[in-house]
Structures are given as C-alpha cells and as structure tokens.
Amino acid sequence: MKEKSLQQLYSLIINCRCPCPGERTGGLLVRDHGNPGKRIVFLGEAPGAEEVKQGMPFVGQAGRNLEGYLQLAGLERKDIFIVNTVKCRPTRNNGRANRKPGACEIKSCAHWLDEELAILSPGVIVTLGDVALKRLGGGKSRRISDCHGQPFKLERYTVFPMYHPAAAIYRRALTEVIEGDFKKLGNWLRG
Ligand code: URA
C-alpha cells in the first residue's frame, strides 16, 4: 500500500522541473528500495553523484560511512528507510562537484518531502546534517552543534538530530561525536 503510494509520488517527482537558480542533475529518481513500512526514517540532504548513478540514497562514500555508524546503533539498512530533503543533485563546476542545496531548492522540494513523510508515517525521523534539521523545524532556534543526539517532538514525529555522516570526512574530530550519537540512538530505540 505504502509502496504503491510512494511509486505514484516518485513518478511525479521525476517529472519535476526545478524553478531555482543553480545547476543540478534532475530527472533521475533517487529512492530507497527498502521496506517503506519501517518506523525509522533517515532524512539526508541531497543525492550525490553515485546516488544519482545507482538511483539509491547513500551508496557513495557517505553511504559507506552511514552503514558503519548504523552498526553502532544495532541497525542495518533494511531496518530503516532513507529519504532526502532535496530530490535532485545540486552541482557545481559543470556537474563535477556537489554543492549544498540552496534555500530555493529546499523550499521547492518541501511539498515532496511532506508527501513522502505522510505516506511513510514514521515514528522517528533521524535527521542527518543541518539542512535536514532546519527543514524539519529546526529553524534558527536549533543548531546541530547544540542539539545533536537529543531527540525532540515535532508534531506526530520524534526527531533525532545527527551530524551528517560525511561531516567527519572533513572534520575528523566529529567521528567520535557521531559514533557516540549512533550508540545513543540504538540505546534510545531499544529503551
Ligand atoms: N548525502 C545525502 O545527504 N544524501 C544522499 O543520498 C547521499 C549523500
């Protein structure tokens, strides 16, 4: 049932033409092929090159990092469903590099994510990085550096904010912080 509704939604997303400035790779669907019935949804930022190539979220370097961290929470990919805040891949240098999604892209994709979450109806949403946190009501009041690892209620969801798994690639010191948050997530889910 959820899968059918998701497929309908994704057939609309793939035809979306973004009105925002900036270059991007659109028209290629990146979606999780796991079980949409899971109660835990992970919310990323936007697909990267490898994700667009394979049509799956978190299959590049960030995905390998994520899988390692998931183990610390006692989770595997099959236990979660992954979605992204922005559906296309924001690029620069003629597609050679990723860029952070802009405010216009986040806003333009907002209704897609709202519809996706309405279908998935998770109990817990784990936000990966500041883009996902802000998008889900973090606003100006919640900064990832202050609230990572501390769940909060947002409407019918509980949001568990995390650093993005790629953050530790650029800031090595974050590795331990992220590892600690994933262990905490596991204990919290089991508790
Ligand atoms: N980073 C994200 O935020 N999403 C992906 O799908 C891949 C990398």
Automatic annotation (TrEMBL):
Uracil-DNA glycosylase-like domain segment(s): 31-183
Recorded catalytic activity of this chain's protein: Hydrolyzes single-stranded DNA or mismatched double-stranded DNA and polynucleotides, releasing free uracil
Family annotation (SMART domains): UDG, UreE_C
Gene3D superfamilies attached to this UniProt entry: Uracil-DNA glycosylase-like domain
UniProt name for this protein: Type-4 uracil-DNA glycosylase
InterPro entries: UDG_Type-4/5 (IPR051536), Ura-DNA_glyco_family4 (IPR005273), Uracil-DNA_glycosylase-like (IPR005122), Uracil-DNA_glycosylase-like_sf (IPR036895)
Keyword Nucleus recorded: no
Top-rank taxon: Bacteria
Keywords: 4Fe-4S, DNA damage, DNA repair, Hydrolase, Iron, Iron-sulfur, Metal-binding
Enzyme class: hydrolase
Family recorded in the similarity comment: Belongs to the uracil-DNA glycosylase (UDG) superfamily. Type 4 (UDGa) family.
EC number: 3.2.2.27
Organism: Sporotomaculum syntrophicum
Gene Ontology molecular function: any one: uracil DNA N-glycosylase activity
One example of a Gene Ontology biological process annotation: DNA repair
DNA repair keyword on record: yes
